[in-house]
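Box 3.1. Reading complex inputs
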Amino acid sequence: MAKLTIPAPELMRAGHSACPGCAPALAMRLMLKGLGPRTVVSVPACCWTVIDTPYPTTALGVAMLDNPIESTGASISGLRAAADALGIQDLNILGFAGDGGTADIGLQALSGMLERRTDAIYAMYDNEAYMNTGVQRSGSTPLGAWTTTTPVEDGARGKAEPKKDIMGIVLAHRPVYAATVNPSFPEDFVRKVEKARVLRGPRFFHIFAPCPPGWRYASDRTIEIGKRATDCGIFPLYEVEEGRYHVTRKGGALRPVSEYFQAQGRFSHLGPEDVARVQAQVTADWERLLRLENGT
Amino acid sequence: MTLKVMSGNYAQSYAACLARVQVISAYPITPQTSIVEKLADLVASGELPAQFVKVESEHSAMQVCVSASALGARTYTATSSQGLLLMHELLHWAAGMRAPVVMGVVNRSVAPPWSLGADHADTMSQRDTGWIQFYAESNQEVLDTVLQAYRLAEDPAIRLPAMVSEDAFYLSHTLEPVEVPDQSLVDSFLPARDARAVLVPGVAARLGSFTGPQQYVEFRREVAKAMERVPEALRQIEKDYQSLTGRFHGGPVEYYRAGDAEAVLVTMGTMTTTARTVVDEMRAEGHRVGLAKLRLFRPFPATEIRELARRTDRIGVVDRSFTFGAAGAAATEVAAALYSGPHHPVLSNFIVGIGGREVTPNHIHAMFDRLLAGKGPEVQWMDLPLPPEEVAHG
């Protein structure tokens, strides 16, 4: 029998208000399992503002601070500065933000935090659109995806532009650690968080975060869709430590991206040519990632 | 007590240092820069053991202060003009989170067109954010007010952020002798921040949160009530400060020869110094004129203005900015304060000194002359020698 590597203590309570099948809820749960109770989390306007439940309740077993949508990077810099000034030791500072609040409106504050070498973890949970406001496209929405602002009609086939490469942007700042994680692979997720926890300096997580209502699939398929995303190479699992790449899951040959697309209503309008175009890009990106790992 | 010659900006820096601020965060903007350059020196030399977070925008500077304040740190930032406008969203956050951030603001005009001169449009645009607002007349008042602002902001019954404003260049870059109190004296006036009611690591709690209308109203009402406590708390704080330093700046409103005045000008900031000399001259000529300097603009000292109206029949409000579509901001506040009071003097609004244009004794004299002559237009722009078409075509 496999040994369980995930800590048992729960720092996120069952009484949250996430939608059924919400991957950002799973992501917070796993993140806090890896970080432990000595954590302060700063959360901008995003799904998690609501998931945590309204005043005077909270779903988290740690201290949580709200901040406006674009300033999570600055907020965690402020928390670290205060902890240092007040002599508060052994404190994990976590920013936990959506893709819009990170890759779009929060990019400046994120860049500032990385450049300042703030000793904190920034986690972007990527549900690939502005989900809390009702599924509007973000810079992190993938090519071809339906959203309410990238409709599928005559002459319009979902989002016309490819997804922003947040890992590339973050890595250009040379953080001490950056990794992709996916709640469908919880051991890999928590292992990376535990690894990052003991490092000092700016650390970043890109979290794959399927959203049943926004991606148009049944809420019991979140884990399966997450697995397909990684196994087809759309969302590879890797970490970059001091510039060294390490791909943490290689399941043999990549599965076709069509298996990932078929499971979601947001891609149901895509034809074989659209899928083939994405497939070519995913294959090229995967090979590029393997070359980065090999240092070639 | 040491007498030093310094700019208004250095008065800000030394006051923050004397207040033993723990976290500073700032982004450079003219004419604020020398405040944070001096603080960077004080931190680098070890004289001020604080964390200085050098950020990529004013928006982030205020976020750093708000978040650091949430963990219990005493925080300081400084900005001006466009920087203050960019902070606007976070100003609401600071007040709503009850974060006692203290900020130095160098009052500067707002673009376009670009201009660096003294102008109150930047801070007037922030008057609805829940911040306590002070306007200083001298570098000494800057230093003293920053120290008083910390006491006030951190008062457990108040817990609101406060900004201490100074006019660009007239104070920010002008050297004046300033009495700098000893550290031990400041420590006895301003103890370490009471860090209760902040986030505690390891304790499940949420600061900020969200609510429905059932509770939201109560949260806003708490901010309103805290504001109402400011004038009384400030009077006590000034009393304490006076007993330690011998200096007194007048509480919410400082009067100058206003007791028996027929006409009083309501002023803010550095124009007051010019106006004092005009009052003296006109008094010598037998005119009963005086001043009421608004030291506090938020909360607005309505009680003091009503008391002023009991004693004088003519009030002129001098504004160094203009609220488009209305009048000067101070004038509308004064009018609102008087409406519900029993005394309704003649009220005129003089718009002057915008964009750093000089406010001269002649301007002040003309305002008093117009006031004493009787009821003029409600809003009068002073000192407009250029016809508009000449401005438009150069």
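In summary: Chain A has one domain: 23-294.
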